[in-house]
Design goal:
One of its GO terms (biological process) is DNA-templated transcription initiation. The protein has 193 residues and is mainly alpha-helical. It has 9 helices and no strands.
């Protein structure tokens, strides 16, 4: 008659409760793949799954006295794994909440530094536009500030849409070089795009 596996496990648990490390290693090797698989799927991380595996078996070893009269180790193990993973998720959620509190609230008014920087950038852009030749300046303002189409600008100024396009391209090229020369190209250029 084959040996009852549950009897073998109960015997193994008795030995672990007495501090037998070989029995503990046997238990570890028997359940490690199952725990690792569950943790890896839940946490989406192999490294985190390894940590969970180690922490669970440390907990089992530290509390090995509880194993002495245990009949259903797999139920006990499932409870430990479930609770440990739940605590991991709760801890991660708390960390994320804390980090989100550190970020500035977009609904709050921006900091004075931001407002000052924006004013300076707007002034720099205005200076660049003011330095354009008069016709380019007018075309640029009608396009970017008033939102007119190339055709509408052409009709208003009595020039061709191609000439409007050429003036806008030259104006943008000049503004870009002006901003680069004044060290604010990237920020303001993003505003222009």
């Amino acid at each position: 008659m084959p040996e009852d596996p549950s009897y073998h496990e109960i015997e193994l648990l008795q030995k672990i409760a007495e501090g037998n490390r070989e029995a503990f290693h046997a238990l570890y090797h028997h359940y490690r793949n199952k725990i690792y698989y569950i943790a890896s799927r839940m946490l989406q991380s192999d490294a985190a799954a390894e940590d969970v595996l180690q922490e669970i078996f440390i907990k089992i070893w530290v509390n090995r006295e509880k194993l002495r009269n245990m009949d259903y180790f797999s139920t006990y193990l499932n409870t430990i794994v479930r609770n440990h993973l739940y605590n991991q998720f709760r801890k991660k959620a708390n960390e994320e909440t804390y980090l989100l509190r550190l970020l500035p609230d977009p609904a709050e008014p921006s900091q004075p530094f931001d407002e000052t920087a924006i004013k300076e950038l707007k002034q720099l852009l205005a200076n660049a536009v003011a330095a354009l030749p008069p016709r380019q300046q007018k075309v640029f303002q009608l396009s970017r500030e008033q939102g007119l189409t190339h055709a509408a600008i052409a009709a208003k100024l009595g020039i061709s849409p191609e000439t409007v396009k050429k003036h806008i391209m030259e104006a943008l090229r000049f503004i870009k070089s002006y901003l680069i020369a004044h060290g604010a190209a990237l920020t303001v250029w993003l505003l222009l795009s």
